[in-house]
Amino acid sequence: MEIEKIKELMDMMKANDLNELEIVDGQTRIMLKRGSSPQVIPQVVAMPPVISAVPPVVSAAPPAETALQASGKSNGVPSASSAEDNLVEIVSPIVGTFYVRPSPTAEQFVEVGSQVDEETVVCIIEAMKVMNEIKSEIKGTIKKILVSDGQSLEYGQPMFLVEPG
Fold first, then answer.
1. How many domains does the chain have?
2. Beta strands 121-127 and 96-99, pairing class
3. Alpha helices for 16-165 (secondary structure H)
4. 140 lies in a domain?
5. Tell me, what's the pLDDT at 25?
6. Looking at the DSSP assignment, which residues form a beta bridge with residue 131?
7. Whole-angstrom Cα distance, residue 20 to residue 17?
8. Which residues of the chain have pLDDT under 70?
9. pTM to 2 decimal places
């Protein structure tokens, strides 16, 4: 094939915004590529392991209640952790990062001994760059905070123990 023909083909590629052109004529094969083809490069982001000073809490809930929480039917509504203690868990309604205060310099939403009602904001859970205020949904006294500030949470994970009242 003549150089002039190849130049014509290159001009036609440019005019029609083509990135590749392949011509096969008998034993002659010409492949023209213009620029670089856009490539999709998948990115894998590894999250660092979360190291917590707080040991994991094992719920004393009966198996049927644990299954109810796992099925999503609790929907973040507090559930009893132990009949003998009469304490109620406030569980995480979403996966995210737990924050005990609205900003690093602000006071905590609640502390051990704080009185809460159904509308009291007890924490913020950050999920996908959205700050979600979590309300107590129960009236009582905070007896224990089960997670630390900045800790990653799973769906249904207990965050607080509340004594109803």
1. 2
2. antiparallel
3. 63-70
4. yes
5. 75
6. 126
7. 9
8. 1, 35-84
9. 0.50
